[in-house]
Amino acid sequence: MISGSFPNSRPRRNRKYAWSRDLVRENSLSVKDLIWPLFVQEGKNTATDVSSMPGVQRYTIDLIIENAAKAVELGIPAIALFPQTPEELKCDEGYEAVNPENLVCRTVRAIKEQVPDIGIICDVALDPYTSHGQDGLIRNGYVDNDLTIEALVNQAHVQVKAGCDIIAPSDMMDGRIAAIRQMLERKKYFNVGIMSYAAKYASAFYGPFRDAVGSSSNLKSSKETYQMDPANTDEAIREVIMDIDEGADSIIVKPGMPYLDIIERVTRELNFPTFAYQVSGEYAMIHAAAANGWLDLDKAMMESLLAFKRAGASGIWTYFAPVVAEKLKHA
Ligand code: PBG
């Protein structure tokens, strides 16, 4: 590290003009960094507001297609799909997750047919399908790891058969990446990617998402027996190493902004494609403060995303994706 001393060195010189700031800027945000999470619901031609996420709506399949086309037009590389399962299809065992005709599979097939150029990422976890809202199967009051893995492998299988490009397991069971990778190899899906939520914390910032997919009223207990303790750092490194070993192509750190230190450490120590997930609660906070006139929405949004790039993230999952993409067009 080279540093000078005043007055030979005056760091403000580079900051004087917009053009000189442009020249020395170390990091930048591109539309190619963005993954856009989208919520899907049953029905036709209906968009439903998610009240805790201003500007975010759940779409029926026909409108998801329109948004996928919009993503391509904006240059967003990939979308991630999260289904809202009708309550009557939920049960303790989450069987709807492995139904090849479930909402998310029908959505994937429709997008592949009509918007072939967008990358499609599917979430693997049972919470949109279980009546108890946990990500796995419960035995004796505990989310059973190995039993859940069998269900997750089957869930991933119906998703890849539908045409999903990248499987993103968000469940935090031990060993699920290896099991899913083995299934993909066995079934000859050699080019299906796995983007693992390797360091996913038991966080309070997922609240609005659980409203969006309709799992919050079902969820009676926490996810602390499988999601990570927010106090831990070294454990995140171990989790990431395990998932790389087991066959992940890239990993996710989640939530984003409260865990920038984890993103930085993972990228610095492991040099592996690492994605930040700016979760629903982070999105909601920025919007809520802006609605009160306490923050400038656009500036806070751009600064929050640039922070992930500075920390070393390869890309960012964000509900701001279409708005940011639009803004970057004119940057
Ligand atoms: C489900 C899942 C969650 C999120 C992504 N996948 C919620 C949870 O673990 O309870 C959160 C996304 C967000 O808050 O934006 N396994």
What sort of overall outline do the alpha carbons produce when their principal axes are compared?
A: globular
Number of beta strands: 12
* Strand content bin: 15-25%
Helix/strand-derived class?
alpha/beta
Radius of gyration: 20 Å
Bound molecules: ligand PBG
Average pLDDT, to the nearest integer? 97
The arrangement of helices and strands along the chain is: HHEEEHEHEEEHEHEHHEHEHHEH
- Unreliable spans are none
CA-CA gap between termini: 31 Å
What is the class in the CATH system? Alpha Beta
* Neighbour order of strands in the largest sheet: 1-4-5-8-9-10-11-12
Q: Please give the count of helices.
A: 12
Could you state the CATH homologous superfamily? Aldolase class I
Biggest sheet layout: 8 strands, parallel, barrel
Blueprint (SSEs and pairs):
Elements: H1 12-15, H2 18-24, E1 34-40, E2 47-49, E3 57-59, H3 61-74, E4 78-83, H4 103-114, E5 119-124, E6 138-139, E7 142-143, H5 145-162, E8 166-169, H6 176-186, E9 193-200, H7 207-213, H8 234-246, E10 250-254, H9 260-270, E11 274-277, H10 280-291, H11 297-311, E12 315-317, H12 321-329
Parallel strand pairs: 1-3, 1-4, 1-12, 4-5, 5-8, 8-9, 9-10, 10-11, 11-12
Antiparallel strand pairs: 2-3, 6-7
Helix pairs in contact: 3-4, 4-5, 5-6, 8-9, 9-11
The protein binds ligand PBG.
